[in-house]
Amino acid sequence: MIEARKLSKWYGSLLAVDDVSFRVERGEILGFLGPNGAGKTTTMRMLAGFILSDSGSAHVCGFGVSDDPLSAKACIGYLPEGAPLYGDMTPANLLKFALMLRRLPRKERTERINAVISSVELHEVLHRPIHTLSKGFKRRVALAQAIAHDPDVLILDEPTDGLDPNQKYEVRALLRSLARDKAIIISTHALEEVEALCTRAVVIAQGRIRVDDTPSNLRMMYQGSTMEEIFRIITSEKGKVDK
């Protein structure tokens, strides 16, 4: 469903992403982890077609993100870093606008909007300007627009950022239910989220993948260590790329 093939990205003299390759199948939730500046967001932007790679390729549902961007992006629900939104719009109008851009028929738009409002629990702020909402509600609106068209692939950068513990629990439950017939990548700094939600973890540091394994295998590999300790070991200068 999602495939990165030797993706690399330079920013001037900085190699931000270095020869990154991995695949995500239907039914998987991949936790994409790494310290700040590791290349997580850049990789996710390349997979979503938001920026182009300097070398390598990205494929979504069999479509090349560079070769056939419209077909690839039609399969993607993308939640970018920082949840950029139109502040003067209401959540209801934003969702309607997003689905119009996706060219969904009017009847289907109404059905999808009603479904996603219920899933993300936006009823109480549905007709308030987005700029008046709390950080948590803004994040939920941004998540709603990502899943509104029922895409096969979700690429979510910090989907629970700014949410309280109850809201995080609800969003994790939602993502588990969606993952039954989708492929999902989430970037997160919350290591407990990886254990609670993800079927696999890819850890990136200095632009290169250090580990691609299941959370349970990682705990076995580093016996007696917490996920936080495992993360520090893997992403340190001494962490082995082939661990």
Quickly describe the structure.
With 243 residues, the chain is of the alpha/beta class.
Structure in words:
The two termini are 26 Å apart. The chain has 243 residues and is α/β, with parallel strands linked by helices. It is built from 9 helices and 10 strands. It has helices spanning 40-48, 69-74, 91-101, 106-120, 135-147, 165-178, 191-197, 215-221, 227-235, and strands at 2-11, 14-24, 29-33, 55-60, 63-64, 76-79, 153-157, 183-187, 200-205, 208-213. α3 (91-101) crosses α4 and α4 packs across α5. The protein is 37% helix and 25% strand. The strands form 2 sheets. The protein has a 6-stranded mixed β-sheet with strand order 6-7-8-3-9-10, sandwiched between helices. The chain has a 4-stranded antiparallel β-sheet with strand order 2-1-4-5.
The whole-number mean of residue pLDDT values reads 91
CATH class of the largest domain reads Alpha Beta
By CATH, the topology of the largest domain is Rossmann fold
Helical content class: 25-40%
Strand arrangement within the widest β-sheet reads: 6-7-8-3-9-10
Could you give the count of β-strands?
10
DSSP strand (E) fraction? 15-25%
Determine the CATH superfamily of the largest domain: P-loop containing nucleotide triphosphate hydrolases
User: Which outline best applies?
Assistant: globular
